[in-house]
Amino acid sequence: MKSFITTLFSLFLCTVVFAQSEQYSNAMKAYLLKLKDAKTPESFQAAANGFERIAGSEQKEWLPKYYAAFCFIMQAMNTADKDKVDGILDQADKLVVDALMITNNDEILCLQSLSASARIGVNPMTRGMKYGQISAGFLAKAKELNPDNPRIYYLEATAKYYTPKAFGGGKDKAKELFEKAVVAYSKFKPANELMPDWGAEQTMQLLEECRK
Amino acid sequence: MRKIIFLLLFTAHFAQGQTKISGKVTDTKGEALTGVNIAVKNSYDGATSDVKGEFSFETNEKDSITISATYIGYLPQEKRIMLSAKNMTVSFSLKEKMNELKAVVISAGSFEASDEKKGTVLKALDIVTTAGSNGDSYGALKTLPGAQQTNDREGLFVRGGTGTETQTFIDGTWVRNAFSASIPDLGARGRFNPFIFKGTVFSTGGYSALYGQALSSAVILETIDLPERSSANFNLSSVGIGGSFQQLSKSKKSSYGIGYNYTNLTPYFLLVKQNVHYSQAPAVHQVDLNYRVKTSKTGIFKFYGYVNHTAIDIQRDNVTSLDYGQDSIRYEDEFGIKNKNAYANFSYREFFGKGWKINAGACLSSNHDDIVLKVLNQNGQITSDSNFKYREDLHITNGNLLASGKVVLEKSLNNLNTIRFGGEYIYNEEKTLAEYVPLLALVNYVPSRIRENFAAIFAESDIYITNDIAGKIGVRGEYSALLGKMNVMPRISAAYKISRKGQFSVAYGMFYQKPELTYLFQNANLNYMRADHYIFNYQYQPKDRLLRIEAYYKNYTSLIKTNVAGAFKGIANTGKGYARGIELFYRDKKLIKGIDFWISYSLLDTKRDFLNYLRSVQPDFAATHTANLVFKKFWVKQMFGINGTYTFSTGRPYINYNTSNPNLPNADAGLFMTDKTVAYHNFSLSANYIKTIRKAFTVFVLSVNNPFGFKQVYGYNYAAKDLNSNGILYSKAVTPPARQFIFVGMFMSFGIDRTQEAIDNNL
Questions:
Q1: The model's pTM
Q2: Do the chains contact at B101 and A87, CB–CB below 8 Å?
Q3: Over the range B557-588, which residues count as b (16 or more CB within 10 Å of their CB) and which as e?
Q4: Which residues in A lie closer than 8 A to residue B51 (C-beta atoms)?
């Protein structure tokens, strides 16, 4: 009888644990789909909110925070009202810092870099220099941790692409880096379907632009 | 037992019924909020509010749950509800966070240029990209409403105030010699390179209790912190050559820099004819030094200093000799100045725990002028004409020494409310000595020396009632040992935001200033001069546009008069006056694609009775109407830009010594200052082109001041004596030394992408 109860109990615990992780990955997948379809600032916000809710319950997971931050950055980049951008990015940066408390990895550093470049958009003339350097700094750190991460090269290339030639950017310099990113993307396989896997499509698009 | 287990499993796995939760989120004013995150605590359930602020979702939770609503810029809210029915309604009304970015900013009387703060009228770069400013910090400020185009005199003339009524403060401390060595009728440039500042506040009235001793206006400058990278710079232009480097330590915690610039206008004056003769064209040596160190995560100590040597010697027609009306006896006035100036500014900023912050500053400066004033005859020798006795060979030495310190403590309370208080102490020593050097004997006038110990204490509080209503109350007390008098003055301002884009603000302030040294040297028994400011401001700021309307009234009392019967040397605080006006500022970056422009207009109605004035009149430095149009255009692809400034102001009154000479006892007061100069027009244009030459970002600049050659007259100089006894004193217009000024320059920057900054240098 006793063993029966123990078995049953452990079975019960297992189901709960299993159910929970399945529930987690299902929820994550659902919002990743939403993120994939998102185009407007509102839809990015809705996806960000979803990831934040998951993050609220899964305090030990870095991915919900990572994706919530990613969605906020995308929302910021798509927001026309420049006065709102910094507030949204502050929220993203807070999530990124929380994620870094859980684990320090190259993907989060890439996101920090992306967030810094997003701030340039508010006023490229006055912010370009400061945030361009901050953004590049995060990528350099990411490279130390994992030089194979293709997003590092994609982000480096994008930064060059949007920097005018006389300021040290330009399509020619961007093209080399995009090509490097393409190679890195071809070798890259995310550890599982929840892991970050973005940038490949945009790399191809911008590389096309560079070749024009 | 078995039953219990089954019951347990049953509840856990099978008893799942869903509850639908819906509702609405608004702000405290009842406006729908979109994008709010509605979440059930400890579950994934939730939703995002839509355009109408509405949301709905289903949850499998049971019994009582906590629902939170969170949104950027608002205080989060939680509600605990019992899931008692299939459909539940929950609504939220979120309160906006007190937020510096959203909170109303008191804008009455002040124009701010900063990249860090929101809602500023200008960006830091605007200070240098304004055409016609020629790399002078004060140049761009002259295109803002309130400032006058008094380019023939030293200082910034604001709202009917004299140039000395505007004072400059760097990192909190007062700057004694803000302008370079000046020559009569030619004005003076600001001494400081605009690139060392990250923030500029130009207050045209009603400024904070932290500052004092400026009746009209305060220019408050904040120096840059650590640079982003090490760099080296080189420049070559039609007026000089220079270089500098800036070294950032490996740890990025400290930096130092040194620079040297040599300016000499001799080659330029050889090429471009001037209507005056220079036996020494302006020649300036300047060495700049800086050191900055982060003392902790939040603290920084900064040093900035320079030494400067300037020499100019100019010869112009002696107007009195022109009264002879004979070409054979035309004399020249020689004015030669050698100026030595050194400046050191130390500042320290640190945040302590519990919302405390300290801003401390200290300043040391010294200035020495060697001036020669000679009247030369046709052969270039000192004249022996007895009509010019005691004026033909004067030697004047002026000097001042300053040491000051200032501490401001700041405590942030909840919700942006802040208290600031502190004190400052200034010691300065001023001396002047005039020597008359005729051919045989040497006459020393008694040297004048003044020592001043000045102290001030101040307190100020920012009060935010909501994001939309804010006030500032301050008080300042000062004591001058020289005058032996103290004063206390209140400063009050408030702002109310009527909509997301529009706001009103008002300000009142009382301001005291010591009389100018010229008068204190003669009569130390004087009192403070006083001005009271009343300002009303409306600002409307939609995206990429800004409209400001400001009305003010300023009352002057106890100004200095120099013709008071019975007073010691005729000098007493019996002058008074007023200034009132309406000013407009409109900036638009959207109307014409790619062009950023602003228009400013100032209407000034001012009268004062001071100095040797015979009655209360519009003073000779004030124009009734002043307008500016400033535009900027940059082609990113071509890396080419054009900036332009057009300035207009109506004529200024001047003293006509032939109709009403204040030096004569029976002068006709009714005719005093009734003549006016012609209206003033000026246009400045500058073009810049950026190119990378090897590894150096290089900027080429060409700027032309007054290409259309408008005739500019600032006033008239009159002969001191009627030498040909025809009853009329000869007069000559005060004009710039040349109609046009052309600048060509090249700025190279190594190691750091300073392109954008470099573009703007000397535009």
A1: 0.82
A2: yes
A3: ebbbbbbeeebeeebbbebbbbbbbebebbbb
A4: 42
